[in-house]
Amino acid sequence: MSEQAAPLRRERRTFALGLLAGVFGLLLVPTCTSCGGADESQAETRPLVLSTIGQIHDIASTLAGDDLRTEVLLGAGLDPHTHRPTRADAARLTAADLVLENGLHLEALLHATLDARRASARPVVAVGESIPAEQRLAVGGAGALADDPHLWMDPVLWAEVARAVARELSDLAPAAAPDIARRLEGVLAELAELDAYARRSIDSIPAERRLLVTAHDAFGYFGRRYGIEVASVQGISTESEASVRHVQELVNLLVEREVPAIFVESSVSVRGPRALVEGAAARGHQVVVAGELYSDSMGPPGTYRGTYVGMLDHNITLITRALGGDAPAAGLRDRL
Fold first, then answer.
1. Do both 239 and 184 map to the same domain?
2. CA 240/CA 209 separation, integer angstroms
3. Average pLDDT, whole number, for the chain?
4. Does residue 41 form part of some domain?
5. What subcellular compartments does it reside in (predicted)?
6. In a domain, 33, yes or no
7. Who wins on pLDDT, 100 or 145?
8. S-S: 106 plus which of 41, 149, 197, 201, CB 3.0-4.6 Å?
């Protein structure tokens, strides 16, 4: 063999060994990544708190900080009155260390799943029931009264719910209790600011126009707190249907009071409100759909309207301005 062939053979051998080493290294990468992920998963020991609706989740996640994990079952656009639990929902409800529901029959179709969890001695807390019965609104006809579950429409009542959530989180993670108490003070201050803004804004609407007409009866607590009459096309549940007679009564009310605007809701059909617009037009009175309110569902996640304060700020500002009151276009926080 020539002297020139020997170096060439060594170069080829070196190249082949390098190539094999590189391939072997690539094969190891997924294995190591997988091992690292498993270690991280095993290291996650913080309790998991699962809230059924966004309004509760927003409070729980703020109070929890980094001390607990928090998730929401029903995201933006989902209706808690009509949502049927999936297998994935059931698995999440089973896996959580604590489930926070509103209660008062809001999550009507989740009852069986939640009751099964209770039967297995896994904690489920209906935070809406922390509000004393005498402070809840009764809805329905004679002999069929029930409590209105839409407590979050009143930030003063929701402050009491925040206190109840803080107690549950502190029981679940006692070491974090001082931090949870500190965060609670911040939440309560925000809710007091929101309440003051709502009162100031709604008070600026001319008295004869203080009529809030919406798709379904979710604003009773809001109306009671801020002195605005509330009427709706549907009843307390989005499953109810409006009669022709009821629609005509609402049209008469809009015409007589010269109310300029009605509202749709983010998680409810717009069919009913449109019937009101058409009925008023037939009577020679122009009514516009002023915009979309958030009722059972909050805004998109990761946005200001996707927070409890942002949701109500949006509602208060839109209602006030549409009915002739005085509120800044950008809302309480200049974020709308």
1. no
2. 27
3. 87
4. no
5. Cell envelope
6. no
7. 100
8. 149
